[in-house]
User: What shape does this take?
Amino acid sequence: MKAVRISLMLLSVGAGILLDGIISSSRYFATLNFNHEALMIAPQHFESSSQSTFNNSTKPEENGLKRIAWLMSFPNSGTSYTSYLIRTVTKTNTGSNYGHESGTDEHSSLSPSVPIFNDNPIPTWTESWNSHLQQPSKGYILTKTHCGGFSFCTACDSFIYNSHTFLKKCLEGDFVTGIATSGFEVSKGYASKDNIARAVHIIRDPFDNVVARFHLERRTLGKKNKAHYPNSREGFRQFCDDLGKIEKAQKQARIFFEDVLDLDIPCKADFYRYIQWHNMAFTTTWNLGIPTLVVHYESYTTSLNETKDALLEFLEQDEVADAPPFVTGKTYREYYTADEIDAVSKMAERLALRETWQHTKHYFGH
Assistant: This one.
């Protein structure tokens, strides 16, 4: 059995104190970094408080209100598996800001969304149709949100985000109403930030993440365009080249990151989006003052049981069934040259906030 070590770091302005096993704070980041010997949980950036510990005594329902733990991820980072993992091992439902996804039954037909809260249609239960899942009776409801700033450039609004607009996107969602005989309607709305009590922040290797996003985007293309962008290294690089020409012509994009556009990197703007997204995610959870667990995608491959246990502890939920197997995603380092990987590393080190860099630098050999 692997040894487990929990180290918690308290940071004040210009000073740091390392504690082991317990922390007096309600604001922290807990990070999962795995090797063959240990599970490391290292919080960053929070204000001290004498009232709470790592096993936070805050209840999921205060004054009758359920509490949400955001599942935050840049798309294609392991969101679906994380949500599925929690539903499987706890046999309880999870949530989503996107009712058009969670209103889908086992036959993949659209159905009305079922909201988690009586006074707001967002978020909704992920699998309200699944009679094998109960609503959580304790702990925090893991709820999917991709926030904003991740779309491939059309009007380039995905480049221009601040903490206010990003938070608004984190709260934004949709829900489905209607019946099959008369048709369904998808409407937009916003969750209440007052119900957001925790966050799980998923991070994937940026080189794999960007290529995986190409694969997802490719599925939306017509037959002719799919032939133009084959599912290969060459197709990826052609897609990036064509997208880069469009982005370089955008006036807004040039104003906001002219130096990035001139870098010789495939899909350079998507690497920019990746960095900005994680910058904004860390900023948002910090501004909300909520405990945040950072999970690296590769941990599902190297340390599945430890990752599962850490998630359950953080969500204060019980394990009642075995974890489903994790199918390791492909790696795509061979899609880039050594010079391109080095250029992305330098861009990330320059543009990333401290928290983002600390949690991603190992992908660049730092």
In short: The chain is about 35% helix and 20% strand. The CA atoms of residues 265 and 337 lie 9 Å apart. The first strand starts at residue 7 and ends at 12.
